[in-house]
Amino acid sequence: MINTKPVRLRQLGRIFPEFTISPEELARREAEKNTRGQKARVVFDQVCPQLIDEHYNWFIVIEPNSGDYFIDPDENIADKKARQKYPTDWLVTFRLNEKGSCGGI
């Protein structure tokens, strides 16, 4: 018996191949993200002991290059405070608690 089903050719690639990011670029972006996170963690580790007692579980948004930070019990307000001074910079958010974590799975 001969198979008469039409053969569907599989399309390779993405819908928008012009937006494909090279593995090297992805690795560079990941390294930059890790560097920002490490810089922000240093700032967090320095200021957390001073702030944790009075502002436990508040959000702290850190601009890693300058070391500036903004705190508020509402994450959106802390982010807005940071965006007023650094509208286009990368920011890192922590929570003022023992681990600095903002949530869990």
Compose a concise summary of this entry.
Helices cover 38% and strands 11% of the residues.
* SSE pattern, N- to C-terminal: HEEHE
Widest sheet, order of strands: 2-1-3
How many DSSP helices? 2
Low-confidence stretches: none
The computed structural class is: alpha+beta
> How big is the Rg?
22 Å
Q: Roughly how many Å apart are the termini? A: 54 Å
What proportion strand? 5-15%
Biggest sheet: strands, sense, closure? 3 strands, antiparallel
- The number of distinct β-strands equals 3
Helix content: 25-40%
Mean pLDDT: 85
Q: Which outline best applies?
A: elongated
Write the layout of secondary structure elements.
Elements: H1 23-51, E1 59-62, E2 69-72, H2 75-85, E3 92-95
Antiparallel strand pairs: 1-2, 1-3
Description:
The structure is a single chain. The protein has 105 residues and is an alpha+beta fold. Helices cover 38% and strands 11% of the residues. The chain has 2 helices and 3 strands; from the N terminus they run αββαβ. It has helices at 23-51, 75-85, and strands at 59-62, 69-72, 92-95. Strands 2-1-3 form a 3-stranded antiparallel sheet. The chain starts with 22 loop residues before the first helix and ends in a 10-residue tail after the last strand. The model has no long low-confidence stretch (mean pLDDT 85).
List keywords for this structure.
105 residues
